[in-house]
Structures are given as structure tokens and as C-alpha cells.
Prior knowledge:
The chain is an all-alpha fold. The protein has six helices and no strands. The longest helix is centred in the first third of the chain and has 34 residues, at 8-41.
Amino acid sequence: MKLVTINKSQYRSVNNQVQIGLVATLAILSVIFGQLMIYFFGVKPLPGAEATGNFHLNFTGVILALMVCSLLIRNLRTKPKFYEVYYVWQLKQLQNKIYRKLKSVQQAAKDNNRDALVILSFYYQSLALVYELDNNTLTISNVNNELEKLQQCIDAAGVSVDADEFTPEMLQAF
């Protein structure tokens, strides 16, 4: 995966629309599906009686709404308008995979393993990109410090490293 320059204002606008739209869709569909399930399969309340025990039907309505939202996301992710949001989502997933192996990658980087240096370069540059897009000003300085340390390590090793050389298959060695 290559790092791509993203228009921050457009990304934030579309990302906010997607989040608000999904929350609203989930809430509305959950209520609709829950009510339909209760109408067709639920226990009818008796006057003055306690709860009817239709919780499982409401829960089924939420599950159905989640399924519809998942299908909606699956179909919308290929649309050009949602490219940036989907790209950042994929990037965050890849960062999570790297994070799970970060200790062993960092150890290999100390031994001047070129693949480890490429992975760390991609990881820290992608974190900086995502933090900038998400306005995460608290931890971006830590990432910049890690990038500086990594560059010093790369210079000391005398190798040339480019984050664009990264492939997810490189992680299999760690």
C-alpha cells in the first residue's frame, strides 16, 4: 500500500457525513426492524401486565440493521466520493497489523534489518498522515520524534529506505 496525499477538508467532510449517516441509519432501521419483528412475532401485551419479553426481537432488529449498514458500506466503498475515507480505513487496519508485530519489527530494525526499517518508515509516516487528518495534535509530536530516531538509525546503517517499498507481505517475516 502506498501513502497518498489526501485533501484534509474533503476527507473530514465526507468522513463526518458517513459517520452521521451510518449512526442515523442504524438507529432508524433498528427501531423499524424491531417494531416489525414485534408486530409479526411478538407477544401482545396484556393490560396491566408486566413486560412482554420481546427483547430478543428488538435485538434481532438491531442485528438486521447492522447487516443492512454493512451491505451499504460494502457497496459505497467503491464509489469515488468515498475513496479517501475507505483508504484511511484500510490504512488504519494495516497500522493495526503492524502494531501487533511492532516489538519484533523494532528489534529487527536495531539489527539493521532493511525490511524492518522499511516497515517502520511506512508505519510512522502513515501514523503521521492519519494523525494529521484526524487533528490528533497530542501524539503527532511523538510520531515525529520516532521518525527522526528512525532516520538516524537508517543513516547509521547506511541504507536507503523508502516507505513506498512497503508491502503487507513483509510482515510475515516477523
